[in-house]
Write a structure and sequence with these properties.
single chain; about 325 residues; alpha/beta; 6-stranded parallel sheet; 6-stranded mixed sheet; globular; binds 3-amino-D-alanine; EC 1.2.1.11; Semialdhyde_DH_dimer_dom
């Protein structure tokens, strides 16, 4: 069964990766439509060897036979156009943060809560990249040992900010001033991703806190986060500290993770083997290592989790959600 797909934000970093991942996974597409802002409209992009002209997005863009629309064009575009698309019967998979906490919008990581897509009312939200990569290893451990508390410390690539973030890093390395981040990112760490809220956390940190509880469907888990931008190009790294309500054997934690779809364990410190951003970049797996008991609490574990934030953190996760819609006959 082939379906018609629209990409909104087709020329952005995630949009271009939508195209790459759809091609790689042979997603069954009959017709594909590409939409962008006026700035990029009129350009031609290739899909499966064919030229596709990028159209300027407007209220009438979905007045055609489209089954699924993948959005990655910022919260404002999603706020306005996702409901328009949904009103025409299009199922929207939205990468922005706009709809993630809406009770009528499933927030989905296919390896974690695939069934949630069945509750959609037209819009399905892709979680934040730093949340997605954490959920894949945390879900099996939560199921087995019941999470009591999670402490996230993230080391996030500049590609999370799109081309402007990448440019600031490249400029900084050449000694040129930063034009996007509030401070130089080269040879530096910025504990400031997105904007600060009243409670002293950034929006990025609150995304991880709120999305973790929604995806795991457990609002008793205590979650805190510190998210940091680091001079890395293409993968987010995270130190994750977990405390469980139940005791565990460390070897069983390894076994649970080894048996989890989408997780690759890289954990052999004696051979200097642990997950690295440069190894994760360009791949769809979530790499887990430095797995060790946290001896400062009764039932705690520390781990180091790395994944490509543009692929598994955004484009691939969204395409996997679209594949679920086909699998469950929802399109
Ligand atoms: C970032 N997670 O890394 C945010 C949005 N992609 O900037």
């Amino acid at each position: 069964k082939k379906i018609n797909v629209a990409l909104v934000g087709a020329t952005g970093m995630v949009g271009r990766t939508f195209i790459k991942v759809l091609e790689e996974r042979n997603f069954p597409i009959d017709n594909i439509y590409m939409f962008s802002s006026a700035k990029s409209a009129g350009t031609t992009v290739k899909f499966a060897g064919k030229d596709v002209v990028v159209e300027e997005l407007n209220e009438n863009s979905f007045d055609r036979d489209i089954q699924i629309a993948l959005f990655s064009a910022g919260g404002g575009i999603s706020q306005k156009f996702a409901p328009i698309a949904a009103s025409k019967g299009v199922i929207v998979v939205d990468n922005s943060s706009q709809w993630r906490m809406d009770p009528n919008v499933p927030l989905v990581v296919p390896e974690v809560n695939p069934e949630a897509v069945k509750n959609h009312k037209g819009i399905i939200a892709n979680p934040n990249c730093s949340t997605i990569q954490a959920m894949v290893p945390l879900k099996p451990l939560h199921d087995k040992y019941n999470l009591k508390r999670v402490v996230y410390s993230t080391y996030q690539a500049v590609s999370g900010s799109g081309v402007k973030g990448v440019q600031d890093l490249e400029d900084g390395i050449q000694g040129k001033p930063n034009t996007f981040y509030p401070h130089p990112i080269a040879f530096n760490c910025l504990p400031h991703i997105d904007v600060f809220e009243e409670n002293g956390y950034t929006k990025e940190e609150m995304k991880m806190v709120n999305e973790t509880m929604k995806i795991l469907e457990d609002y008793n888990i205590k979650v805190t986060a510190t998210t940091v931008r680091v001079p890395v190009r293409g993968a987010h790294s995270e130190s994750i500290n977990l405390e469980f309500n139940k005791p565990f054997e460390l070897e069983d934690v390894f076994t649970a993770l080894k048996n989890t779809e989408g997780v690759v364990i890289v954990d052999n410190p004696a051979n200097n083997e642990y997950p690295l951003a440069v190894d994760a970049e360009g791949h769809d797996e979530v790499y887990v290592g430095r797995i060790r008991r946290d001896f400062s609490v009764d039932n705690g574990v520390n781990m180091w989790v790395v994944a490509d934030n543009i692929r598994k953190g955004a484009a691939t996760n969204a395409v996997q959600i679209a594949e679920l819609l086909l699998k469950y006959d929802l399109v």
